Automatic annotation (TrEMBL):
It comes from the Bacteria. GO terms for molecular function: ATP binding; DNA binding; helicase activity; hydrolase activity. This is DEAD/DEAH box helicase. The lineage of its organism: Bacteria, Bacillati, Actinomycetota, Actinomycetes, Streptosporangiales. SUPFAM superfamilies: P-loop containing nucleoside triphosphate hydrolases.
Amino acid sequence: MFDLDEDDTCRRFVLPALKEVAGWPDERIRREFQINDGRIRATTRLFRRDPPLRADYILEYASDLPVAVVEAKRWHKDAADGLEQAKRYARLLDLPFAYATNGREIIEFDFSTGAETVVACFPTPEHLWQRYRAAKGLSSETELATALAPFDQTLRNWDNSAKRPRYYQQVAINRAVRALSRGDRKVLLVMATGTGKTMVAAQIVSKLWTARWPDTRRRPRVLYLADRNILVDQPKDDYFSPMFGDAVHKLSGGDPKTGRNIYFGLYQSLDSGEGAELFYKQFAPDFFDLVIVDECHRGSARDDSQWRQILKYFEPAAQLGLTATPVDEGNADTYAYFGKPIFEYSLANGIEDGFLAPYRVRKIRFNVDLTGWRPAEGQTDIYGNEIPDNLYGPKEYEKVLAILERTEEAARYLTECLQQNDRMGKTIVFCENNDHAARMRAALTNANRDMVQRYPNYVCRITSSDGPHGRVLLDDFRQVDTDEPVIAVTSRLLSTGVDIPTVKNIVLFRRIASMPEFKQIVGRGTRLFPAAEKLTFDIIDFVDATRLFNDPKFDGPPLRVVRDDTDETGHIVDTTSEDLPEEEVVAEPLADYEPQDSWRLDGESPDAPQITDPDEIDRIRARSRRLYVNGVDVFIDGSAHYISAGDGRRLRLVELRQYVRDRVIELDLQPDELRAQWAQARSRRALRERLTKHGVELEELAERVGQPAADTMDLLLHVTWQTPLITRRERVHRLEREHRHFLESFAPEAREILETILDQYATHGEEELNLTVLRAPALAQLGTPTELADRFGGREELREAVDQLSEKIYASA
């Protein structure tokens, strides 16, 4: 009877069924509700974004309180065709009800009962709200008040739009609020770095604040705990102060100002004093209603930690733990203290949803890391200390022995990477210790003198040993609108809790054994910042730390790997495949040797002594027993290039040519078909889009294969079927020789245009073989597009001539 599309079906049947029959107000029906942003898929250098997930309708009982999903299909489709889609969206949004309809039939799925039912009509808002309350266990007045409290909309994004919680943040907020409202004393949220734990914490407090939890006679009192200033100041200044104003106070000793409501404190400050005079004991144990423990895998995580005593003291308060990396190691067990997480959102989830940046990984191995280094008999280091006769390897480098050229070669290679991509791309370099960071800073400064002349702080070291000046540099580095510093060299200070959304490169020059630490470091680059075109990031790994991608505990997406081989100078010359090693290749450990920390260089304490006398420094260095060696031939023995791709969780290595070959074969493109599609502008454009959708970035192919003068079609044929490569200029010469009669069939004034198009093609590529080239400067000087078309007798005749020209080009094999 009807042949309506989905829009007509919704307009004529679905919306009237919701509004007029079931009584849903228009403002409570959220149309085309966007759930995520669509996954960003990294290629070897660029990226593309998948379409976002959108639910046809979300039904809200109150503002920011969704209760059901409705998925609509066109009239002649089966209503059941939309049910799995509706259920998927409902699961993501943590909603108990999913509906699918085609305008004729309505199917309901109730997650709380597991029942699938064909219903005569949509339920009314009040009826669905009562069922929602039962499904979520909302019974008390406190639970209802916190559930109905709207989200705060004070905060603004970089473009001044309202900063609203994302779908998964809403789920985390609502689950936490429900748990606290029903009386849970310990609540744990596990969310990957960059997914907005601070936003979640602030909105949880906002809902409790609005509902006057737990005592309707007053606002709640909250303590936000962390172990670093940056972890306290950033949430206080960027989130809580704008939302709660003067109710926010940072504890720093002295008067605790018990008249405030939301307190921020460092464990170190609260733990100052002795015995009964400990600062935190100026508050009664039941003073706070909620204690938020940020980065709860650190600081107070251990059972025997002095800082754990603070949490025990405030045990009458509910405690909310936030972390990206819970630990379960010996006496440090996040789950044993807080219990099972009520919500988890992983790095893989964030990348799949398009809220986190995918990554590429370039793994570089030095010859001295693969083979180890052994001193000559009686060899001394640069300070005259004799070097024990042992085989030294990565486990000893920078702790026992430092090869100066190793750091210089890493700086040279990193500089080359920046030159190839973005010299102003913000970069964090993680070194073994502060001494290593200082030498890396010097090496990078010397390798980038041209940039340092223009930007004095282009390279800087940021460690706690750098004191207040380092903090100023960190503040500048964090800002999204500053040019410098560009390269921040550190040891551990920037590994956790620092929000730097513009970071484009994470450089690993420090061995990492801890999975939580590895996740935290990777998380420094996962934040998106579209305003600066930061939608992916690169990990440059000198120490094989990325072996941890193979660990089952790592929850990111899988990777494919492309190996870049280098010449004797360390410059990339070709790509080859590589087998992924099961274990890290390291030299034998140094026997019977226990390295000691040096006087200041390993420590992160800002109170470390500042010694300037050269003789005293030499003596202290000698006592530290770290050896400094130069004159060693260090070079790069190859590099592997990883990019996020595929399904599953294992690392696999794919050489670039093999990857392109697999995609062409996967698309069932035989050589004759590929040539035929490539010959016409319209079908060529469609083919390019198909290849791009499957991860083949054609703009990069010529560069990576090292044939910038070749036609893209020839490159595809070459890497897939090993056909000989010819340049675009050679194709033009063959056309002029083999199809001269075609060119001579046109009048001289028309032939001039075709010859110019051929020259444009030979110089710039196949994109010049369409009518848009008429506006190119080389043709614009011959006349307007209309005047050029008139030389052929009209626009259609010109189009036909260009299409024939394209066919002749690709017929010349």
